[in-house]
Design a protein that fits this description.
- The protein is about 35% helix and about 20% strand.
- It has 25 helices and 27 strands.
- The strands form seven sheets. It has an eight-stranded parallel barrel with strand order 3-4-5-8-9-10-11-12, surrounded by six helices.
- The chain starts with 11 loop residues before the first strand and ends with a helix.
- The mean pLDDT is about 95.
Length: about 675
């Protein structure tokens, strides 16, 4: 029986080239190329999981047409020399095994290329000093340097480089290219009025500003012939004042129509002009933002140009969404990255009518933060993504000897351990002290806006149920002791007991009945009064305060660190979502009191102290949320870690060091591969 997802899995032929479905992997940068810009076997192995999972096209992101002139990312692929063709062929040939198209997103960074990387200012449509250059200059203790306005000779040379880069792709066995014309890279520095101040035939009107993009596409067509597909990436709206907005993008699409085969519609800019944090949130949406965030732009362009093939991207979290988008005619292709990193097998699962088996993406941005280190990209919830060379076919190896194994703790680390041990053929018992599986994910999923975490919690519990069907024993409401483990005589133990909230016991009144650990009260909103004080300015505290504000409560957040250090601390705990949280708090005027320590909890107020002046201030409230951090449960670890042969006892997740779901899941998986 075929799939009930008729539109997503409908094949399409473009220029005689067959695409088996409408799902593509949006441009990914796994940081697995060589330092000088060539494909490696490790990179091919990483992409293999997506090809095997059933997408029609894979795109490797931000590949430079000439790394000697445009090098804006570590481990960036270089397409400027014929030496790249052989390693590219390894990637192309792997994809053909799975009936999948290998491709690259080819690019020139323009203004985004730093003086430090190249030894000269970046090239652009015009000469100007960008906000990013001001920041780069300050970091490197130098004066800002304006971009070099490209001469017509330089434009011609660069157009040719784009064509030759695509030709090398075709020689390697590829039949589709993505031209990066969005996000404030060089091509969009020509198309956008924000950057382009030229007065010649490449500047002024939208049609003139489209000229460079058209010439790039014509060069690719000349070098690659008619049996080669050109997908052009643009920003549906650049969002910034004075930039390119949707009405003008529609006009641009009209000029491109005869020169591109697919218009790939993203949004935003590569940089953050005016400190508005525009690019990151439109390119890589955080968990506070709507699903299918950028589909509106693709839909608008498709309505204006119904005869144009359009691809959409941006928080399209499942193939259910993709089916809706394509069946409604809002786009012809759907591009996904993080949801496919979380579950590369998603297309196959949906084609087999198993959508309930999808492992959901958290939009936690664990993957993207590795780009800045740099270190190889991996996923928080899909530990296989960090092991694609060791486990290149995505199969967990069976153990040589079946062991009796205990898993202590039913959070994400414990459930991952149970799933991995069952897959290896071991006899597994999971112990959970409470009556529910999920651990601290339960509290994290409590706010209504945490829809991705709610999906993940449901998936964890389904996974646990599937493990039980395969023979795992799950014991809820069971607090493990050394005596219990000694009686059972386990061969191996995974300790994943997590962390517990810090409660400042020295504060008078801290044990009053209206004082709660923040996630505990968010689970049961009947505990929350009308005036709330949240203590702690990390990610948990900010989320709790936002949840209270959404409930219509009068809420104030207090944080003992000064504003500068507090924001650094927030960034450490909340990551790239920090800017989003701070913006929301400013727009909604949710008060945050920095440099303010909790001194005492009273029945109808809290006493606080200004850490700079020592002044005592009383804040009225009927509910107090604690969000001052977590501490590892080392006491439990120490009691249990000698209850099996020491070489087969593994301590994972928050009980080892408080961290994230990513650490718990990946540590558990990797530990259990060796049991």
């Amino acid at each position: 029986m075929n799939s009930r997802y008729k539109h997503v899995f409908e094949p399409i032929r473009i220029r005689g080239i067959d695409f088996k479905n409408r799902i593509s992997l949006a441009p990914a940068t796994p940081v697995l190329s060589t330092p000088d810009g060539y494909v490696t076997r490790e990179l091919v192995d990483w992409f293999r999981m997506f090809a095997r999972g059933g997408v029609c096209t894979l795109f490797l992101g931000n590949c430079s047409i000439d790394i000697e002139e445009s090098h804006d990312q570590n481990y960036q692929l270089d397409l400027g020399k014929d030496d790249c063709i052989y390693p590219l062929a390894l990637y192309a040939d792997m994809c053909k095994q799975f009936g999948c198209h290998a491709s690259l997103e080819i690019n020139h960074g323009g203004e985004g290329v730093s003086f430090e990387a190249m030894g000269h200012a970046g090239y652009s449509s015009s000469a100007y000093i960008s906000e990013d250059e001001v920041l780069r200059a300050a970091r490197n203790n130098r004066e800002p340097i304006p971009t070099i306005e490209m001469t017509k000779e330089k434009i011609k040379e660069t157009v040719e480089k784009f064509g030759r880069a695509a030709a090398r792709m075709k020689r390697a066995g590829m039949d589709i290219v993505m031209v990066h014309g969005g996000h404030g890279n060089l091509i969009s520095q020509f198309t956008s009025p924000m950057f382009n101040k030229r007065t010649d035939e490449y500047g002024g009107s939208t049609q003139n500003r489209a000229r460079f993009a058209i010439e790039v596409c014509e060069s690719i067509r000349k070098h690659c012939g008619e049996d080669f597909v050109i997908e052009f990436r643009c920003s549906g709206d650049e969002e910034a004042p004075g930039s390119m907005h949707i009405d003008e993008t529609i006009e641009l699409a009209g000029y491109l129509k005869g020169h591109v085969d697919i218009l790939h519609v993203s949004a935003g800019l590569h940089s953050d002009p005016f400190g508005l944090h525009l690019y990151m949130r439109n390119w890589c949406q955080n968990y506070l933002m709507d699903h299918c965030f950028n589909v509106r732009y693709a839909r608008t362009i498709k309505e204006a140009h119904p005869d144009m093939l359009v691809s959409t991207v941006g928080s399209i979290m499942s193939i259910d969404y993709a089916e809706e988008i394509i069946s409604n005619g809002w786009a012809d292709f759907v591009s996904m990255l993080r949801p496919l990193m979380a579950d590369p097998e998603m297309p196959k699962k949906y084609a087999e009518n198993r959508p309930e088996d999808r492992r959901p993406c958290l939009r936690c941005l664990s993957c993207s933060k590795h780009l800045m280190v740099p270190k190889p990209t991996y996923c928080a919830v899909n530990p296989m993504s960090a092991m694609t060379t060791e486990l290149r076919d995505g199969v967990i190896p069976k153990a040589n000897v079946t062991k009796k194994a205990a898993v202590i703790g039913g959070g994400p680390g414990g459930i991952q351990a149970m799933e991995t041990l069952i897959a290896r053929g071991h006899n597994v018992t999971l112990y959970e002290k409470s009556g529910r599986l999920g651990g601290n994910v339960i509290g994290a999923a409590a706010p209504p806006f945490k829809i991705d975490v709610q999906d993940y919690l449901a998936w964890l519990r389904r996974t646990a149920a599937q493990c039980a069907e395969k023979g795992a024993r799950i014991l809820l409401n069971t607090e493990v002791t050394k005596d219990i483990l000694d009686i059972e005589n386990y061969d191996a133990i995974v300790i994943a007991v997590g962390a517990e909230p810090i409660v400042p016991q020295s504060v008078p009144g801290i044990d009053k009945p209206h004082v709660f650990w923040a996630p505990e009260a968010e689970e049961d909103t009947s505990k929350i009064g009308n005036k709330v004080v949240v203590v702690g300015g990390g990610g948990v505290g900010f989320e709790a305060a936002l949840d209270c504000a959404d409930l219509g409560k009068d809420v104030v957040l207090i944080e003992m660190l000064d504003e500068g250090r507090a924001k650094m601390n927030l960034r450490a705990s909340a990551g790239n979502i920090t800017s989003e949280l701070l913006t929301i708090f400013a727009e909604r005027e949710i008060p945050v009191c920095y440099g303010t320590a909790l001194v005492e909890v009273k029945d109808n107020s809290v006493v606080t102290k200004n850490t700079a002046t020592g002044e005592l201030i009383e804040l009225p409230c009927d509910t107090v949320f604690l969000a001052v951090g977590m501490k590892e449960r080392w006491d439990i670890v120490e009691e249990l870690r000698r209850c099996a042969p020491e070489s087969n006892v593994h301590i994972v997740g928050d009980c080892r060091k408080t961290g994230t779901i990513a650490e718990a899941v990946n540590q558990s998986f990797q530990a259990c591969l060796h049991i």
